[in-house]
Amino acid sequence: MTGKTISAYTDIKTAHRIELIAQQEHRKKAQIAGTAVKFFVGLPEEARAAWRQIEALGTPDEIEQISQEIAKTLLHAQYAIAHKQVVQELQTQQLGALETEDELLDAAVSLTR
Question: How many CB atoms lie within 10 A of CB 28?
């Protein structure tokens, strides 16, 4: 992927968190920052404005609570997408020929391998 380098200013705490995440994920700091920027600019204008207001007016506990809610939403979406892909990949046409409970259990076991 071709890209463009930009410069960004952030506080020391955020810079340290970027360094930590980069180490944990074995990625470059620029990749972490780029992903964060891509996510933020992909939000609707109203959501970006709301986040700026939350940062300005919210307490650290409120910001943490909101971050946890965002994380739950992302994890739910990740699960839904993965579930959809698994369902699409299952070959359910074979299941119609199953007549006994043992055949059904054998088919279920083979699908999980």
Answer: 10
Helix and strand totals (H; E) in the chain: 5, 0
pTM value is 0.71
CA dist 106 to 32, 88, 96, Å?
44, 20, 14
Q: Six-digit token pair at 36? A: 């964060």
Asked if residues 54 and 62 have their Cβ atoms less than 8 Å apart, the reply is: yes
In this structure, are residues 46 and 54 in contact, taking their beta carbons and an 8 Å threshold?
no
CA distances from 14 to 33, 46, 94, 107 (A): 10, 23, 52, 50
Low-confidence ranges of the chain (pLDDT < 50): none
Which residue ranges make up each domain of the chain?
60-113
Indicate the length of the chain as a whole number.
Answer: 113
